[in-house]
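Q: Hi! First time doing this. I have a protein sequence and I read that you can turn it into a structure. Is that right? Here it is:
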Amino acid sequence: MTRRYTTMDVFTDRIFGGNPLAVVFDAAGLGGAQMQAIAKEFNYSETTFVFPAQEPGHTARVRIFTACTEVPFAGHPNVGTAVALARELDRSGRRPEDEFVFEELAGQVRVRLHRENRAVTGAEITAPQGLSIGSAVTAAAAAECLSLAEPDIVVAHHPPQLISVGLAFLAVELATRDALGRARPNLAAHARVLPGIGTDGVFAYFREDTHGPLHARMFAPLDATIEDPATGSAAAATFALLAGLRPLPDEDRSWRLEQGVDMGRPSVIHGRTEKRRGVVTAVHIFGRAVPVMEGYLHLPGEGE
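A: Yes, that's right. Below is the predicted 3D structure, encoded as structure tokens:
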């Protein structure tokens, strides 16, 4: 049998911006090796596969693959898959509920759909895990990973540190927007520094002040992604980290992050954090997504 797919540009409101995603519908029966081969064929930063839900009341089980491996959670795949699935339901006359629940390796991902003129144009997802903070590396090591000088790294707020709300990244704050623009991944440094702390990606960001938007870039050449146009999971973890560092013990805060500008695929990620008694209790990210292509996969042994 054939397998239908669609591609979406995510964290943007127009095609050829944001982060491309392939969504494979009706994935039941596909094995891990097949899904990995399909993801490698698309060669996007991620491809998702939609399976029937395993628990009553849930929308779907979603598996996420990069070109190299399966990952437990990611931001733009959830936003793009939610919008793509909602559009499919709308097109078939089965208007979806305003909320989805996806089953993923990292846990349940709750989704709220966003409509404009009755059409689903975006989604807000809630990270499946609370913020976890792992190993730190030196400013010198982080600078080498980014082909920068040590003074380009800011350590006043936090060291270059492993953070996760379902998928781990090394978060590195930079001193200037110019440094962010000059950053380049150093493959040898990535291979030496990152596997030992449990990640393959460096999320570098700059913020002019505590109220302005963040500007970011993400490099993961060890995972076949030289640069990612929009990284929702890293953005969510960074929002949670920064919210936790703020002095107010109880605070709801909105965030905005711009990514992909330096590679010609501008993306915008909106976020919300909820903090109670000094602990960030929830982090949400929102983005728009637009359809780009759709078609069929013809897999060996599955007929025409």
